[in-house]
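User: Just a sanity check before I run the rest of the batch. Below are the structure tokens for the first item. I only need the designed sequence back.
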């Protein structure tokens, strides 16, 4: 069976199982071990998967990481598991880091059974990075991520290849995030570097401020023109569109950005206001609140009603609007909110998914989705 088919099957199983998960052991047995098996490692073979792998730390003996996935007789991937629903925060990363630094492994995997965060030692050899180079959510993943995950299958696993790919994933992500920030709010240095070849005078603070909206507009036009002239570049099977999206700022205003032009917001601050049409400016503080406000607006305008329910987030995995705060398969909404009588919304998604779902709602139920705009302060 192809990896994509196996992932689809496991995704459905995990969606059904998570409402019964209330401990770390249940997380391991019902969610994590099936995922490890999906990668081709025999969970019943102690030469491939070692549970409670000893990673002695200094004078502390008997420290154990949940699993070690072996390659050529050596630990290749250390897996640290947390109970489903526990936030994978700094403390959990630090724990995996301690295990990582006293072994010869090049990869660490921190998971709650749904979100899998892959770490390596790209900044300093033998010292695990504090940020993952790759994240995979078994309930919500892009097709492009399957290719990345396939490198960690037992039959494909080659340490050098995986390390090279990890470098690329890490720095392409950082470059994309930086480009997004520069396109949304260009820094003086960025504006100066672009204007120097075109402007011979002294680039004062006042001039840089004047040139900033021009830089934003020029980039927006450049991206549109480039995509129109090179459609194959966006449809490249090696780098699908979801991997090439960047933040495209508004061209008609330095303050407001059309929501449908926004993507890749993982490291962006949430907007401070949302505007519907030429009126209805509402303050917001989070991406989850944005999804709520968009839904409320569509209901208020009569464009979304109980007769349209249920509304599926991406066609197969996440249902996020229903007449009751429960999916058709019986899974309770994790963070429900009642928008109006008979309309409940789920809000517990990643920031990128929240933005994507907002755009899909607007595209489906609004005649002019481009009129919904965001302000960032």
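Assistant: Here's the designed sequence for the first item:
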């Amino acid at each position: 069976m192809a990896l994509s088919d196996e992932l689809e099957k496991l995704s459905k199983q995990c969606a059904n199982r998570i409402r019964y998960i209330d401990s770390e052991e249940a997380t391991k047995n019902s969610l994590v071990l099936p995922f490890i098996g999906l990668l081709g490692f025999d969970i019943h073979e102690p030469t491939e998967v070692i549970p409670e792998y000893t990673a002695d730390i200094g004078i502390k003996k008997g420290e154990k990481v949940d699993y070690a996935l072996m390659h050529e007789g050596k630990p290749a991937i250390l897996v640290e598991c947390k109970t489903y629903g526990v936030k994978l925060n700094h403390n959990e990363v630090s724990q995996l880091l301690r295990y990582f630094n006293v072994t010869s492994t090049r990869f660490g995997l921190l998971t709650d059974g749904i979100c899998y965060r892959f770490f390596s030692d790209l900044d300093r050899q033998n010292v695990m990075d504090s940020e993952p180079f790759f994240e995979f959510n078994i309930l919500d993943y892009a097709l492009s991520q399957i290719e990345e995950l396939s490198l960690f299958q037992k039959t494909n696993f080659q340490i050098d290849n995986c390390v090279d790919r990890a470098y690329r994933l890490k720095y392409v992500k950082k470059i994309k995030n930086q480009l997004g920030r520069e396109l949304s709010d260009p820094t003086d240095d960025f504006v100066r570097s672009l204007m120097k070849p075109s402007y011979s005078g002294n680039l004062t603070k006042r001039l840089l401020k004047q040139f900033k909206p021009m830089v934003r507009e020029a980039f927006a036009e450049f991206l549109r023109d480039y995509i129109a002239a090179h459609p194959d570049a966006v449809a490249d099977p090696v780098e699908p569109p979801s991997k090439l999206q960047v933040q495209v700022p508004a061209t008609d205003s330095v303050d407001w950005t059309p929501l449908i032009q926004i993507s890749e917001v993982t490291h962006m601050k949430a907007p401070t206001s949302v505007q519907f049409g030429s009126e209805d400016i509402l303050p917001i503080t989070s991406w989850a609140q944005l999804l709520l406000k968009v839904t409320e607006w569509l209901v208020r305008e009569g464009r979304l009603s109980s007769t349209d329910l249920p509304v599926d987030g991406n066609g197969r995995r996440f249902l996020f609007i229903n007449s009751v705060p429960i999916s058709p398969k019986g899974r309770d909404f994790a963070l429900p909110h009642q928008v109006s009588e008979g309309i409940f919304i789920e809000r517990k998604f990643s920031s990128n998914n929240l933005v994507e779902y907002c755009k899909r709602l607007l595209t489906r139920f609004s005649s002019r989705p481009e009129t919904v705009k965001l302000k960032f302060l």
